Amino acid sequence: QAKTAGRSTLRFFDPDMQAAVTQRATLEGELRAAFAKDEFLLQYQPQSDRSGRVVGVEALVRWRHPGRGLVAPAEFIGLAEETGLILPLGRWVLNQACKLLARWQSDPYLAQLTMAVNVSSLQFRDTSFVEDVLRVLAMNGAPANRLKLELTESLLVENMEATIATMEALCAHGVGFALDDFGTGYSSLTYLKRMPLTQLKIDRSFVRDLLTDPNDAAIIHTIIALSRSLGLEVIAEGVESIEQRDMLARAGCHFYQGYLCSPALSEDALQRFVRDRVG
Ligand code: C2E
Ligand code: MG
Ligand code: MG
Ligand code: MG
To answer: What sequence ranges are listed for the domain EAL (predicted)?
Structure first.
């Protein structure tokens, strides 16, 4: 039945679907307005080394919704991508992150930190992306070699040559690249080798059951071996327990991010967190 209906047939008789459409339209309107109302904010999740020292942060966007409180990115990034709103939002995120990165430079401890920023593929594909990133860095007086852009594997397979060209243009200025949620997509090893990457980021889903699922443990060992042979740093995300961290350390993982160290923090809380740990 559905197969013969044809692609152009509109079907609006499903009340659940109608409700979803309305809800989506509401969310889209609110998302557009959120910009003008300055409702977005960034939080920063620490990344630590084996000794527990904070070496960097990942900037994570949140939406302070008037009725719903702090909304997680999973609830609006997808829609922002579909509607193109991710372009101005992504630029805003990058600007905020670079502003903070510049401010850190006058502090002996904070100046050492790297700032990781998530970049969605639509943003990365934008013809002015390289120019935008360099301008935002320069405008804020932020050091390019402290900025790390997090890309996902899907981006790499879409248009390899253009992706490499964009990465190399930024890499020449010192910008680093992390491959986010690594292991959940499908990267060809040849491509990985050609890409100017700094870091592989082991996806949280492999870390979660690391202690009980031998397959996850095997995958983690493989990713770490791979990063070593490619000369890349490796960081694990979603590290929640000491046992997970110890196991990762034994497997040769360099860096950790997760609730064990800290959840994402406000700018002020992060500064206190870093300074407290330096002693
Ligand atoms: P991600 O880049 O993989 O970020 C890590 C996510 O894992 C964050 O969720 C973080 O809060 C969460 N997390 C960190 N440690 C733990 C842990 O120990 N246990 C568990 N269960 N979770 C942990 P969040 O902030 O909700 O972000 C979700 C995703 O939204 C991010 O995944 C990223 O893909 C996307 N995102 C966030 N900010 C931005 C942004 O500015 N731009 C774009 N394009 N995407 C963003
Ligand atoms: Mg990320
Ligand atoms: Mg990730
Ligand atoms: Mg993830």
So the answer is: 24-278
